[in-house]
Write a structure and sequence with these properties.
Helices cover about 40% and strands about 20% of the residues. It is of the alpha/beta class. Strand 8 (about 145-150) and strand 9 (about 155-160) form a beta hairpin. The site of 5'-O-[(R)-(carboxyoxy)(hydroxy)phosphoryl]adenosine (KG4) has 19 residues, from helix 4 and helix 5. Belongs to the KAE1 / TsaD family.
């Protein structure tokens, strides 16, 4: 008998629903939220209201595209956290109601685990290139920068993480002071293509172990801008490409430095990247180069699996379903990981 999982993701500002049958993706529908653009960041209250408007059409479209009737769904998987509580509540409540109406089990999914397991989403007609266990996963997003040792679908250990800002946050905050729209990461990526990455030097952290820090880089970036703008008010506009390229190179050097150290120490030859920042073209290239240089197998996600999506929630739900790992309907969402 085949297993059909409906996945629901609503942790931040994307409402997404996906259907997976026996680990193969049948549909993945995401509605973004333009409402935040003018505020330069995600406004939690507006996000949860937009989720309320989007959730039914998104789930409906995801099911319709598969041609699978809702009664064929074997379980409903939803992102329980971490994320924005109001946003999570919408997806959680909808998943609970839907599962109860269908009389099928409910599966809670950790958003970060789902980002890692996005690498195991199979697609019809697409060659499978799944990571081999154990592997290291660099999880880089707007809220997280972690190095995770993945020993199985369930066994994941965070061996390094940021002690302050996340990599995506560093991109977004520096982009903001350069007057770029939110989120700044994709704009920096685009502008950096025409810039000189060696033009400016920003400070890099010196932290023991595999942990990251990006607040020093952010401060050194701000000080450079402040000093230069005093002398030339048009400095940012005239040097935008070089600033973006130099900032991007520094972030990637910091990320790859710790990852390489962990891979060497633990003698791991399978390395993956996940999360919103893994859409960055220079970071993707750095992974390819790393693989060639160190004779390692690298795993880079499809663009549609880098940012928040329900395909990764559904695949995590699928593995949990096979283990009979279901959750109680009374389980509340959580904003932060507390363990
Ligand atoms: O995983 P994600 O979609 O969700 C949150 O953590 O909220 O990651 C969003 C982050 C943002 O900081 C955004 O600027 C960054 O991913 N991002 C990028 C690129 N695309 C998205 N950063 C650099 N280059 C990109 N191409």
């Amino acid at each position: 008998m085949s297993v059909v999982i409906l996945g629901i993701e609503s942790s931040c500002d994307d409402t997404s629903a996906a259907v997976i049958r026996d680990g193969v993706l049948l549909s993945n529908v995401t509605a973004g939220q333009a409402v935040h653009e003018e505020y330069g960041g995600v406004v939690p209250e507006l996000a949860s209201r937009a989720h309320q408007q989007n959730i039914i059409p998104v789930v409906d479209a995801a099911l319709r595209r598969t041609g699978i009737g809702r009664t064929e769904v074997n379980a409903v998987a939803f992102t329980r956290g971490p994320g924005l509580l109001g946003s999570l509540l919408v997806g959680t409540s909808f998943a609970k109601g839907f599962a109860q109406a269908l009389g099928v089990p409910l599966i809670d999914v950790n958003h970060l685990q789902a980002h890692v397991l996005a690498h195991f989403v199979a697609e019809e007609g697409v060659e499978r290139h799944f990571p081999e266990f154990p592997f290291l996963c660099l999880l880089v997003s707007g809220g997280n920068s972690q190095i995770i040792l993945v020993s199985s679908y369930k066994d994941m250990k965070v061996i390094g993480q940021t002690i302050d800002d996340a990599a995506g946050e560093a991109f977004d905050k520096c982009a903001k002071v350069m007057g770029l729209p939110y989120p700044g990461g994709p704009h920096i990526d685009r502008l950096a293509k025409e810039g000189d990455p060696e033009r400016f030097k920003f400070s890099k952290p010196n932290i023991a172990g595999y942990d990251y820090s990006f607040s020093g880089l952010k401060t050194s970036f701000l000080y450079t801008l402040r000093d230069e703008v005093k002398a030339n008010p048009a400095f940012v506009r005239e040097n935008l490409n070089d600033l973006c390229a130099s900032l991007q190179k520094t972030v990637i050097d910091i990320l790859m430095g710790k990852l390489a150290k962990a891979a060497k120490d633990l003698r791991i030859r399978h390395i993956a990247v996940a999360g919103g920042v893994s859409a960055n073209s220079a970071l993707r290239q750095a992974f390819v180069d790393y693989g060639v240089k160190h004779h390692c197998e690298v795993y880079i996600p499809k663009f549609s699996f880098t940012t928040d999506n329900a395909a990764m929630v559904a695949i995590t739900g699928y593995f949990k379903y096979l283990d009979g790992d279901f959750c109680d309907i009374a389980l509340p969402p959580y904003a932060r990981v507390t363990v």
